Amino acid sequence: MSADLLLPRVASGDADAVRACLERHGALVWTLARRLSPTRADAEDAVQEIFADVWKSAARFDPAVASEAVYVATIARRRLIDRMRSRRRKPETESLPEGPAELPDPRASLDAEQSAEASLAADAIARLRPEQRQVLLLAIHQGLSHEEIAAAMQMPLGTVKTLARRGLADVRAWLADPRPQLKAVEP
Amino acid sequence: MSAKQTKQEQLEALLGDRALVGLSEEQQAELAALLGGEDDESFDRAAAAVDLATAGPLEPLPAHLAAKIEADARRTLHAPQVSSRVRATKDVTRWAGWMAAAACFALAAAGWWRASLTPSMPVASMPTTPPSSAPAPVPVAPPTPTPAALREQLLAAPDAIRVDWSTTKDPAAHGASGDVVWSETRQSGFMRFHGLAANDPSKSQYQLWIFDPSQDAKTPIDGGVFDVDPKSGDVIVPIAAKLHVSGPTLFAVTVEKPGGVVVSKRERIVVTAAVKT
Fold first, then answer.
1. Are B186 and B136 spatial neighbours (Cβ–Cβ below 8 Å)?
2. Looking at the partner chain, which of B69, B73, B84 has a beta carbon nearest the beta carbon of A15?
3. Angle at B98 between CA B93 and CA B103, to 5 degrees
């Protein structure tokens, strides 16, 4: 699957691993930051914070739990969500989308270089109910809050929360062990 | 439905919300209480995996940005131990600029010191509920045991540290003194103040921040908001850390809007206490 692990080397203070890590995961982090940041300058700030977090958390990386790409993406998402929440607390509010934007097809957009977990996640998303999939992707891909999704999809807030939570729980369960569900789907 | 099931459902709802949209401070505290010192990042990983699956074509990281990040990293990644040490030091120095030159005072000789140990010690109110994961629930009302007594008990802990406050030039800190006590194993602590200006909770509140090597210096751990009653000169405030504190390097109190903030702009830093390592 993946080549040598870089984060353990970063954790041991190997500065060369930093460059390799940026080469391997920089595009992923930048793409996520660009998508979930209002401006390019904000995305640049976010990426610097994210990689500072990555270096700091490198020692906690466990390849038995997640791939490096998922680990880095997890750190990136947490930082980006914090920044989005901070922006939302400010008086100036950004305009909400008028309706659900076009969402990516998980299978079509899956890159060969991305991790096995991403491939499994794509499978899991494809198996969700359409409205569950839409809510989950609006939250994850576009970074919309529950309230923004409810407004965009004209759904009750409680329904949005339930769909999002159950959708993510289903993806999580699928990632943990897809076999029992495969049996259920493909008897 | 049993209480255990309800608790599990609430835990999973919070973990899911954290992974998708983030949590408010109150929700973070609730989650910390439900997790009981552990963490479960499986929901976060699931969301990250979905993000990877839907990322589409990736845009290369701009070269100038990669170079800057690499240069920054090289400055702090000489060795693993150095990394955290440098960060801790930077935390202290960043806040140290706000510290008063020297606010050393003989605590044992100060009258308020002895007075603070009496049962009649006024207690600052803590509008935010401390995480229930804290090993020793701290009452905010004076009955037995008093906060002063609880503080004394905590001081007896083998790993307890006590650091005197240093004041800044902020008007609220004029003539203020006191200390902070913290036990890492108990994840519990108390602040003590003498002469800290009373605040109007409808306009502003004090908020404690705890720096440790595990947290980015820009986002130290929220230690809770509190008030100082105009009728009381001396107060003891239980610390309500929202996250696990590991090797604190600095405690700092700021003045914030009512209810506190998630990230302080550090416009009004009142007192700081740097932990000597």
1. yes
2. B73
3. 100
**Rounded to a whole number, what is the distance in Å from the CA of B84 to chain A's nearest CA?**
8
ipTM of the complex: 0.86
Closest Cα to residue B205, out of B268, B170, B257, B242? B257
CA dist B88 and B213 (Å) reads 5
The Cα B133–Cα B131 span in angstroms is 5
- At A163, list the tokens: 């769909």
Domains of chain A: 7-89 (1.10.1740.10), 106-185 (1.10.10.10)
Domain ranges of chain B: 3-53, 90-274
pTM of the complete model beyond 0.80: no
Kindly determine whether residue A168 and residue B47, on different chains, have CB atoms separated by under 8 Å. yes
Option in A15, A27, A164 nearest B20 (CB) = A164
Per-residue b or e along B126-154, where b marks 16 or more CB atoms closer than 10 Å to that residue's CB:
bebebbebbeeebeeeeeeebbbebbeeb
Band the pLDDT of B64: cuts 50, 70, 90.
very high
Contacts of A50 (CB under 8 A, 6+ apart): A29, A33, A75, A76, A79, A80
pLDDT per residue as tens digits for the range B97-138: 433 332 332 232 222 222 222 333 333 433 333 333 333 333
Query: Residue A145 carries which side chain, given as an amino acid letter?
Result: S
Kindly list the residues from chain A whose CB atom is less than 8 angstroms away from the CB atom of residue B262.
Answer: 82, 85-86, 89
Q: Which residue type sits at B170?
A: D
Short-list B27, B29, B24, CA closest to B239: B29
Q: Does A129 touch chain B (CB under 8 A)?
A: no
Q: Tell me how crowded residue A72 is: count the other CB atoms within 10 A of its CB.
A: 29
